[in-house]
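Work Package 3 (structural annotation) set out to generate three-dimensional models for the target panel prioritized at the project kickoff. During this period the team completed the workflow that converts sequence records into discrete structure tokens, so that structures can be stored uniformly alongside our sequence database. As a representative example, we reproduce one entry of 96 residues exactly as it appears in the project archive.
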Amino acid sequence: MMEAPAPEGSFTVVLARTKRSVLVQEGKTILETLLAEGLDPAHSCMEGVCGTCETRVLEGIPDHRDLVLNDAEKAANKTMMICCSRAKTATLLLDL
């Protein structure tokens, strides 16, 4: 089944462990959005260079913007850095 493209500027992140959904607005990161929602996922640099926030992607296609994953890891779409990466699909299901 073809994934729906992310609407311009915003997308939904579904947290698999709690089934909670959050809308990530244009100009915001997944991490910023989760922190604003009172959640505290693992993070450190907030710039996509340390790898602390690496999160498993269960469904959807990330828009990788980090400097941690190599090209093959990015192409596999199995993990992403939630501090800087966004979504290419309308929804991402993350192992959080």
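The chain has a mean pLDDT of 92.
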